[in-house]
UniProtKB/TrEMBL annotation:
Protein origin, superkingdom: Eukaryota
The keyword Glycoprotein is assigned to this record: no
GO cellular component: mitochondrial membrane
Subcellular location: Mitochondrion membrane
Presence of keyword Transport: yes
Pfam families the UniProt entry points to: Mito_carr
Organism: Lipomyces starkeyi NRRL Y-11557
Alphabetized InterPro entries for the sequence: MCP_dom_sf (IPR023395), MCP_transmembrane (IPR018108)
Protein name: Mitochondrial carrier protein
Membrane topology note: Multi-pass membrane protein
Protein keywords: Membrane, Mitochondrion, Transmembrane, Transmembrane helix, Transport
Residue ranges of Solcar repeats: 80-165
Length: 253
C-alpha cells in the first residue's frame, strides 16, 4: 500500500476515535453496568482517549495493510469476491489484535474511573503491569478474537459488496450517456453509505459477544469487581451474570 492511502486511513481512524470517544465511554459504562445513564462529569467522557489514540495508529495501520496485502496475495487462489473478503478480513483481525486488545483493556479501565480516582494513562499502564503483569493487558484476548474476527469479516464483506453494487449502478448510469463506459468510481456519499451499512451490520452481529468481551476484560477493575466479583471466574460466568441481570433479549442488544 502507498503511504498516502495508509496516512489517510489512519487519520480517518484516529479522527473518528476522537470525535466519538464520549459515546464509547458511555457504551463501556453501560456494557459493564457501572452506569446506565448518559450524564457524566464532562472530563469522564474523555477518559481513556490517549490510550485509544496511541494504540489506534499502529494497530489500524497493521490491520489495513494486512487486509490489502492478504487480499492481493489470495486473489489468484480465491478470486476477488466473497471468499477473499472473508479470509482477508480474518487475517487482518488476527494480525492486529496483538495491539487492539491492550488498547481495549487500558482504555476500558480508564473509562471506568471516576473523576475523584482519576490518574493518567501512563499511571494506569504502570499499575496494571505491577499488579497483573503482561498478561493483564491481554485479558479477554481470545474472546476478543471471537468478537472481532466475525465483526471484521461481516464488515469487509458488506463493504465490498456495497462498493460493487454502487460501481455497477454508476457504470449503468454512465453507459446511458456513453456506451464505452466501464465501472465508475464511487462518490464520497456512496463510500459513506457503504461504511455506515457495514458498521451497522457488523456491530449488530457481534454485539452480544462484544458485551461479554468488555465484561471479561474489565472483570478485575475495582468498579466491576465490587458489583460482580464472580465475573473473574471466566467467560461462562460472565455470560450467566449478564443474562440473569438483564434477560436474554437485552443482553443481545
Amino acid at each position: 500500500m502507498d503511504l498516502a492511502t495508509i496516512a489517510a486511513a489512519v487519520a480517518g481512524a484516529v479522527g473518528s476515535r476522537v470525535a466519538f470517544h464520549p459515546l464509547d465511554t458511555i457504551r463501556t459504562l453501560q456494557q459493564t453496568s457501572v452506569a446506565t445513564g448518559y450524564r457524566l462529569p464532562f472530563a469522564q467522557y474523555w477518559r481513556g482517549l490517549p490510550a485509544a489514540v496511541g494504540f489506534t495508529t499502529p494497530a489500524f495501520t497493521i490491520y489495513l495493510v494486512s487486509y490489502r496485502q492478504a487480499k492481493k496475495v489470495l486473489e489468484p487462489y480465491l478470486g476477488v469476491d466473497t471468499a477473499n473478503y472473508v479470509v482477508s478480513g480474518a487475517i487482518a483481525e488476527l494480525t492486529s489484535s496483538v495491539l487492539w486488545t491492550p488498547m481495549e483493556v487500558v482504555k476500558g479501565n480508564m473509562q471506568l474511573k471516576s473523576e475523584s480516582k482519576a490518574g493518567g494513562t501512563w499511571a494506569m499502564i504502570k499499575h496494571m503491569y505491577q499488579t497483573q503483569g503482561l498478561k493483564g493487558f491481554y485479558r479477554g484476548y481470545w474472546v476478543g478474537l471471537a468478537v472481532f474476527t466475525p465483526h471484521s469479516i461481516v464488515w469487509w464483506y458488506t463493504y465490498e459488496k456495497m462498493k460493487t453494487y454502487f460501481k455497477s449502478t454508476n457504470a449503468l448510469n454512465a453507459s446511458i450517456i456513453d456506451s464505452t463506459a466501464t465501472l465508475q468510481d464511487l462518490t464520497a456519499s456512496q463510500y459513506a453509505f457503504a461504511s455506515a451499512v457495514s458498521g451497522t451490520a457488523s456491530g449488530t452481529a457481534s454485539n452480544f459477544l462484544d458485551v461479554l468481551k468488555t465484561r471479561q476484560q474489565l472483570a478485575i477493575a475495582e468498579e466491576v469487581s465490587r458489583l460482580r466479583p464472580d465475573d473473574q471466574m471466566g467467560l461462562w460466568k460472565v455470560a450467566k451474570n449478564l443474562i440473569s441481570e438483564v434477560g436474554i433479549m437485552r443482553a443481545m442488544f
